[in-house]
Each structure stands twice: as C-alpha cells, then as structure tokens.
Amino acid sequence: MHKLFVGMAAVAFSATSFAQQSGLEACAEIEDSLERLVCYDNLAKKEQSGERKRQDRELPEQARKGKQKAAEMKEKAQERRERASDRFGFEHKEKEETEDERVNVTLAEREEGPYGKWRITLKNGQVWKQTDSGYFSWEGDAYYIERGALNSFFFGREGSNRRMRVQRVK
User: Fold this and answer.
1) How far apart are the C-alpha atoms of 111 and 93, rounded to whole Å?
2) What's the per-residue H, E or C state across 11-71?
3) Is the pTM of this model over 0.70?
4) Which of these, 83, 90, 122, 86, lies nearest to 104 by C-alpha position?
5) Which of 63, 44, 143 is nearest to 102 (CA)?
C-alpha cells in the first residue's frame, strides 16, 4: 500500500513538473525579451495562485497574452518618448508663461559697496545686489527688474538701454 502511494505521488509530481517545464520551454522559445518576461511573469502568477494544473492548450494562450501585454507596454513607452520629445527645449518656457517677465519697481535706497557694485533696496522691502561690473546711470525714477536667460535678472531704467545684472539677496 505504501509503495503504491509513493508511486502515485511520484507520477503526479512528474506530471506537474512536466507541465511546468513545458510552460517554461514555451516561454523560452519567445525571441522578444519583453514578451518572454511577460510570459514568465504569467507563469509565476499562476504558480502563486495555486493553479498548478496546466494543460498544453493553455500555454499558447499565455504566450499570446504575453505578446499582447508586451505590445501594449511598447506602445505606451513610445507615446511617453514622443510627448517628451515634443516638449524638449520648452520646459522652462512653460513655467515662465505664468510668471511676469518684467516688473516695475520703486527705489527706496541705493548704496555703492566695495569694488563699485550697487546694493539696491526697493520700496516693497526686496534687496538686490549687482553681480556684474558694468556702468549704470541713475537718472530718472522709473526702474524695472527683468527676467533674463538661465534664471538671471537685470535691473534697468526706462528710456535707457543700459542695465545691470542683479541677484536677489532678501
């Protein structure tokens, strides 16, 4: 009796391992690496969920599902690449469209620091300092701060082409 039980268990185990082996072989025959990975994932999911009884007719279905899933994933990846390439170079422009490019300001105080660079205090409490070494004419009272390239800012006077590069301190 004991030998009969062991023999039946061995036959059942070998049939299960044969079905599993044939599923692995079906996945191994798939050439595309993504489709093959999806096929292996499907086999693992069925193994974990307790569906160990596989039939040979199910294996082509798994391979078909793997190919379909891989095709969907490739299509989504291609769409993401196309969207990214459409926005390439305009990332900073999208942000700046909502922000002001130029702000008119009222000067509260200005003082010349060491090395001839200016420290500018505005009426709204902002403090800016000159970062370049250019000459600036202080005639008039209509000033502005303008956004430049690469997050730089310029302090200028209305009616004049001269401006100086500034950085906000406070």
Assistant:
1) 34
2) HHHHHHHHHHHHHHHHHHCCCCHHHHHHHHHHHHHHHHCCCCCCCCCHHHHHHHHHHHHHH
3) no
4) 122
5) 143
pLDDT digits (tens, 9 = 90+) for 49-80: 665 455 555 667 777 788 888 889 888 888 88
Residues in the chain: 170
Distance between CA atoms of residues 168 and 16, nearest Å: 72
Largest Cα separation within the chain, whole Å, is: 112
Pair 164, 136: CB distance under 8 Å:
yes
Number of H helices, E strands in the chain: 4, 7
Cα 72 to Cα 61: distance, rounded to the nearest angstrom? 17
Tokens (6 digits) for 27: 């996945």
Please state the domain extents for the chain: 2-87, 99-168
d(CA 43, CA 37): 10
Spatial separation of the C-alpha atoms in residues 149 and 92, rounded to whole Å: 10
